Amino acid sequence: DQQVKQNSPSLSVQEGRISILNCDYTNSMFDYFLWYKKYPAEGPTFLISISSIKDKNEDGRFTVFLNKSAKHLSLHIVPSQPGDSAVYFCAASGGSQGNLIFGKGTKLSVKP
Amino acid sequence: ETGVTQSPTHLIKTRGQQVTLRCSSQSGHNTVSWYQQALGQGPQFIFQYYREEENGRGNFPPRFSGLQFPNYSSELNVNALELDDSALYLCASSIGQGRIPGSSYEQYFGPGTRLTVT
Questions:
Q1: Which band of pLDDT confidence, cut at 50, 70 and 90, is reported for residue A97?
Q2: Core vs surface per residue A23-38: b (16+ CB within 10 A) or e
Q3: Which end of chain B is more exposed for a tag (fewer CB within 10 A), N or C?
Q4: Other residues' Cβ atoms within 10 Å of the Cβ of residue B100
């Protein structure tokens, strides 16, 4: 049973517009959430994170929003750039183990 | 600051063989986690090492084993390879386990080792 779900396998956005990537989770014990970006033939690169005590965290063009009641988080990229084209993974941490639980990823394509 | 490195980059093995994958953690990091990423899936947690001891394990059989050394580098060993073990194996390092003061939840990944079992 998937505890972290990214229901959109792909997303295509025009350069300069907003990209919104969504993630849902089922385990209420999760207390920290992260987004990673992955290019082909590279490992995932940490992008931005948010603690469950916050509802928003911003870093430059990237903003993560957390809605605990809905068990939903989203990553906003504004403005989107062609170099943002990659697979984006949502991950959650919680429980006694320090591991991360990942979604299946969303492939973002930003078209010039 | 040196990032996480992994070796080898690619590996081809035959079913039933054994394999060892290596990882050097990022400078200043004392925790190493290993993940398996199958095609079209997100990374799946195998196990984590903190200060040379296994600190948690995912749903993987005992033929997946590991070590962490005093310099915090790590090895992943897989015995009796099966075709389904073909995947990208990722190593990630971090500071602590994210649950104790001074530690961090963020994990930093290496480029991975692509293992193919034929």
A1: low
A2: bbbeeeebbbbbbbbb
A3: N
A4: 10
